[in-house]
Amino acid sequence: MQNDFPTPTQSPNANVVTVSELLRSVRDSLERRFPLLWVKGEISNLSRAPSGHCYFTLKDGQAQVDCVMFRSRASLLERELENGARVEARARVTLYEPRGRFQLSVEAVRQAGMGPLYERFLRVKEKLEREGVFARDLKRELPEHPRTIGVITSLAAAALRDVLTTLARRNPSLAVVVYPVPVQGQGAARRIATMLARASERAECDVLLLVRGGGSIEDLWSFNEEAVARAIRGSRIPVVVGVGHETDFTIADFAADARAPTPTAAAELVGASRAELLERLAACAQCLAREMRRRLEYAAQGLDGLARRLVHPAARLAAHRDMVLQLNARLAFALAHCVHRAEARLERLRAALAGLDPAAVLARGYSITHDEGGAVLRDAANVKEGERLRTRLAKGEVLSEVKKK
User: Fold this and answer.
1) Which of 153, 302, 352, 383 has the most CB atoms at less than 10 Å from its CB?
2) Distance between CA atoms of 6 and 219, rounded to whole angstroms?
3) 360-397 residue pLDDT tens
4) Where in the sequence is the domain holding 257, given as residue range(s)?
């Protein structure tokens, strides 16, 4: 690598760098030299900052190194970090410039010794996830009140005893069908997948429990095989997976219609408690009784209302008779009123007509003069001297001759 520092023969002021420039150069060199890699060691001095970042030391028998895992990465951990845990950390080698401190920036953590299996687990999970095998909309609803429950596990497994004990305690009336199958060892995954298909084909259960107790990742590996995940999704019966302990996750858990943290929890998930059912039944009976009482009360009130409206036929006829008399009286009054108004209007018309009668005008001293042709004279210019005229008075007529106009 090129020497960036002055030699004794160079000027003392040549190639002088600041501390920050020096540390930045070292940091860049480290990050270029060491890409992401897996580092194995034991966790110690673990602390969690309020920001969510985790700080710890990774050590072995001869050395130790400071590590930081930022919140965005720490939130993705499936297990909490613990002091004394032997882990493999996928980290980036870097330098914390403000303190000039060499450290590892951790991206992921897995249990030590899980390397190849864990990588295989991630590959299978990623493949099935891309295909939509774990899609939420594919998951089926569990029956609310199953009558027959199928249990797929080994006959020698403690998980079977736990499941049967839990189901018998919660509801002894449930029927249980056990489908025996090895849950560990060579060929176990294939046989589990075959038994799932057989149970689905026989269709004698309302829900299936695929269970196994805890163990190492190697012990649980059958439940990480692709064939088991596809068999779970291919089942026509809803499948609940309860494998290992609460912190154990397998591919089967992601493919299942429901995941239970333990075999006992799986039994509790599908086997409704008899006491709970009786309690719900009692509550429903109380609700039904209240509803029936309410409806009877409403019906009684309605009957009272109808009884108040019920009238004897004689009373109804009498009421109608009174109504007819009232209507007759109103009709007679209306008719008299109409006649009175008509008479008053006739009198007004008669008076108006009398004022327009020519005879009445003549009676007041006026007269009407007609010419020889019988036309009424209105202008003296329209007569001639010697013309004979007829004048009508209130009583009689006068004949005259025009002497002068």
Assistant:
1) 153
2) 61
3) 666 676 778 888 878 887 777 778 888 888 888 778 88
4) 135-273
